Each structure stands twice: as structure tokens, then as C-alpha cells.
Amino acid sequence: MTEKQQALLKSAQTLIASHGFSAVSTAKIAAHAGVSEALIFRHFKSKKGLASAVLSAGERARSEMIYGRLNDPDPTQVLRSFTAIQLNVLNDSESVLAWVAMIRITRENPESRTIDAFVLERLRWAISSVGHGAEEAVARTAIEILERSILLAFRGDEESSLMLLRGLRELLINE
Question: How many other C-beta atoms are found inside a 10 Å radius of the C-beta of residue 134?
């Protein structure tokens, strides 16, 4: 990816994370990046093409921040680590920005949402192992709560974010 493509991607992530996908025009993204709007269309073909690049970057960031936490052989530790992600994740603001932008796009365009198969499977395993039924539904709900928590923390509402995760941990592992 060229420097200008990276600048456009970073600007798109910043603006989408803060304002949402629909509220941000290609002109605003280009101005924020300090380039011409034509470069968006040259490099990404359309706003949708740029959104696709934002989604891909967000998926990579999400994977980097979650995967290592899900490899423990103890299912309770997997769930404990999963519900503690937000506490540690805000230290890497660039990855958080990519993940938040991805979340904002998928909230506005649910057809673009993907659930990471590895994350879903590890959560299903851990949830089932600690005795919960309906592990698919519980795992999907846990992912949704984590994403809501990250959005709240990104917006500066750390207290509500932490309360969501504490509640999730209580429901999952009674802690």
C-alpha cells in the first residue's frame, strides 16, 4: 500500500470511527488525509471500495488483539481473558481505531459483518465447557457485548464499558 493509500485508510478509519460511515463523505476523508478526492477513486474505486479496505484492516486488528487470548487450554481462562480485552486494548490506539471503524461500518451495514470463525469456535468451546447450553447464541452475544464495550470505551464512557464486561464475565463464569 502506498503512503497516500495508507493516509486515506487512516483518515477513513479516524472519521468513520468518530462519526460513522454514512456521515463521512469521500471529500471529508480526502481533506483529512490532505490529498485530492480523486485519489480515493483512483486507489479504491469507490467509497464502498475504501470501506472494504477499512473492514479488512479492522478484521486484522481484531484478530491481533483477540487470538492470543483464546489459546489457553482452560476454558474459564479463555472467557476471563475475552472479557478483559477492553481493559488492555486501548493501549494500542491504532489497532483500536481500525477495529472501531470496522464495528461502525458493520453496525450501519449489517451485510458487511463477519464473525471470525476462530473466535466463534473458541468461545463456543469455552462456553460449552463451563456448562452453558446454547453456546452458539451465547458466543455471538458475548462478541456483540465486547464490541459494544469497545465502542463505549472509544467514546470515553469507560465506566459503562467496564460494567458491560463485568456483567458478561458474571454471566459466563460467575465471577
Answer: 12
pTM for this entry? 0.88
Gyration radius of the chain over CA positions:
17
> Within a 10 A sphere around the Cβ of 46, how many other Cβ atoms?
11
The Cα–Cα gap between 131 and 138 comes to: 12
Report the alpha-carbon distance of residue 100 to residue 59 in Å, rounded.
10
Residue 84: other Cβ atoms inside 10 A = 13
The neighbour count for residue 168, using CB atoms within 10 Å, is 21
- Tens digits of per-residue pLDDT, 78-118? 999 999 887 566 666 788 899 999 999 999 988 888 889 99
Question: In this structure, is the dihedral angle defined by the CA atoms of residues 94, 95, 100 and 102, taken in order, positive or negative?
Answer: positive
Distance, in Å, from the CA atom of 129 to the CA atom of 126, rounded to the nearest integer, reads 5
Distances (CA, A) of 97 to 22, 54, 113, 160: 17, 10, 17, 19
Mapping DSSP to helix (H, G, I), strand (E, B) and coil, where does residue 141 land? helix
**pLDDT tens per residue, range 124-154:** 999 999 999 899 999 999 999 999 999 998 8
Phi, psi of 158 (to 5 degrees): -65, -35
CA dist 149 and 168 (Å) reads 10
